[in-house]
Each structure stands twice: as C-alpha cells, then as structure tokens.
Design goal:
3 strands; mainly alpha
Amino acid sequence: MSADLERLAAEFERFQAKIKQAEVKFAGVGEMQDRLTQLEAVATSADRSVRVVAGAGGAVTDLQLTPEALRQPAPALAATIMKTLREAVAEAVRRQAGIVDETVGDAFGVNTSEQVRQAQEEALKTAVDGLAPQPVEPPARSRRPITPDEDDDFSQRTVYDHRR
C-alpha cells in the first residue's frame, strides 16, 4: 500500500508542477486583455487631411477630416480615406499580434505576427513596409452613343407608353 501511496503522491506532484507551468505561461493573459482594450493605431494621410484611429481587431474608433479634405473631389477623398483606413487597421492588427505573441506565443509555438504579416502581404499584394496599396481606378464605363430615335421627347407620353 505504501508503494501505491508514493506513486499517487508522485503523480500529484507532477500534476501540481504542470498546473504551476500553465499558471506561469498564462499569468499575463489578464494584462494582455487590458493591453488589447487600450490598443490604438493611428494613421494620417500623406497630405494630413485624413486621420483614422483603429483599435483591437482593426475596429475603426475614429475618423477625422480637415476642412482641406472636404475640398477634395469625392473620388479623391474616398481614395484617401480608404488608404488611410487600411493603414490604421493593418497597424492595429500587427500590434495586436505582437501583444499576443509576447504573452502566449511561446506557449503554443506560434508566431502570430509573422502569420499576420504574410496574410497582409497576400491580401494587399504588397510588402508590409509599403502597406498602402495603390488605389484601384474603376474601369472606364463605355457608353454607346444615343441614336436620334432613342432621344425621344416624352412630354406627351409616359414611360409606360411603348408606342413608336
């Protein structure tokens, strides 16, 4: 019976040691959560007319436009906003991955930061150093010329009248 008791005590000690290892590995999880809730990445457009703030998970928490931004033509402003937004979100996600790696990366043997970098490079088709992809111009819409019969005067008819 003494041998069984010693074996049981040894197993219990090994179990307690594993619990202590897990506690050490995950002691920083609460701090990690606090850091993630406070995470903020700010991106400002090259002309400084647009400022975007993104938080954990890439959630956009603020967007600021200067009066100069509002003087831009709508397509240019939209492109500037989208470019700045992508930069802020990408930076927030990279910072979040870094925080996760610092806290639990070793415990799981995972390099989240590297995975995020690769995913961003794939998605944006550019190196992480140049995260802002060039804005894609919409394809030019071809318009067929309007023939004289299509340019009818509808003042005497409704759109439901299909007579020619």
